[in-house]
Amino acid sequence: MTIKRKRYCLALLVTLVGLAGCRDHDHDHAHGSNAQVTKLTLALNWVPEPEFGGFYAAQLSGAYAKHGLDVTLQPGGAGKPTMQMVGKGQVELGVVSADEILIGRARGIDVVGVFTVYQTCPQGIMVHRELGLANIGDVFAARTEGSPLTIAMEPGLPYVNYLKGRYGFDHVKVVPYSGGVVPFLASKSFAQQCFVFAEPVSARQQGADPQVFLVADAGYNPYTAAVAARGDYAKKHPELIKAFVAATQEGWQAYLDDPKPANEAMGKLNANMDARTFAQGAQAQAALIVSEDTKASGLGVMTKERWTTLAQQLVELKVIETMPAVEECFVEVR
Asked: pLDDT, tens digit, for every residue of 236-291?
């Protein structure tokens, strides 16, 4: 499994200030026997993996077609600028994260969230279970054989700055994250950032016994794998957004019920991940997709309270200077 990547590509947002010439992507309509079908492109921010399983399930099951949509799922990769693609109107929809949306809006980019895969952010810190740590705070005070832990994390990202502000890094050695799990496998004194359905699965398959502490448990919990659209596009085409969300909810429910069909389809597009890893990844992420909010209002739902908390945290972290109008950062689709 290829793991080396930057899940939070917030450094790319520096370039968003210069976005210009944004426009609606032209629609391509095709007429069936009874209804008009609208073509949409959803740009993924990584290669086909379980984090996108519900989108592929919606495509395979015919949920998108049932709602009058012909959705092209455009795989991503390292450095793919999905936020810029949405902001410039090159695609109708793109997978980003809630903090990216807030940063974009704070810099004048008209993007909004319309759906989110994860209610609990899958970002975590992975340690060796034998250390016997009880919570994420313990990670930043742990010592092995009299020496502090070495923790690999991408410097400068909001969640890293949040952890530093809350726990301090005085008692650990923080090094840049280089991808993969080789250093983790080589040393019990090495910890690293991870996504719960990626690096821990790989480490476990190679004989390690990783323990993961979610960053969300420390209080930083942005909606992740969120679908963004241009704000003006969402306002202009509310029924299309509603149809997309409804179909995507059906797709994600189908994937939660039985991930195998979508996993097999994604496996044909991503030869670096085998069937076992797809299955384990799908199992590992399931609890992060469902919450009390989704039980009450449906999969993918987002709340003003969560967006407000995140915006306040980004201001406190000096990632943005002022809070954007939170109610304009996402679309409540019912």
From this structure: 999 999 999 999 999 999 999 999 999 999 999 999 999 999 999 999 999 999 99
- SS3 for the chain is CCCCCCCCCHHHHHHHHHCCCCCCCCCCEEECCCCEEEEEEEECCCCCCHHHHHHHHHHHHCHHHHCCEEEEEECCCCCCCHHHHHHCCCCCEEEEEHHHHHHHHHCCCCEEEEEEEECCCCEEEEEEHHHCCCCHHHHCCCEECCEECEEECCCCCHHHHHHHHHHCCCCCEEECCCCCCHHHHHCCCEEEEEECCCHHHHHHHCCCCEEEEEHHHHCCCCCEEEEEEEHHHHHHCHHHHHHHHHHHHHHHHHHHHCCHHHHHHHHHHCCCCCHHHHHHHHHHHHHHHCCHHHHHHCCCCCCHHHHHHHHHHHHHCCCCCCCCCHHHCECCCC
Alpha-carbon Rg for the chain in angstroms: 20
Q: Which of 254, 289, 207, 215 is nearest to 59 (CA)?
A: 254
Which residues, in sequence order, are CB contacts of 304 under 8 Å at separation 6+?
326, 327
**Would the pTM count as exceeding 0.70?**
yes
b/e sequence 246-277, b meaning 16+ C-beta within 10 Å: bbbbbbbbbbbeebeebbebbbeebeebeeeb
CB contact at 8 A, 164 and 140:
no
For 272-279, the CB contacts below 8 A with 24+ separation are 272/1, 272/2, 272/47, 273/1, 273/2, 273/49, 274/1, 276/205, 277/1, 277/201, 277/202, 277/205, 278/49, 278/50
Q: Is the pLDDT of residue 5 over 50?
A: no
Cα→Cα distances 306→233, 293, 321, Å: 23, 11, 19
For the record, the structure tokens of 246 come out as 């409804």
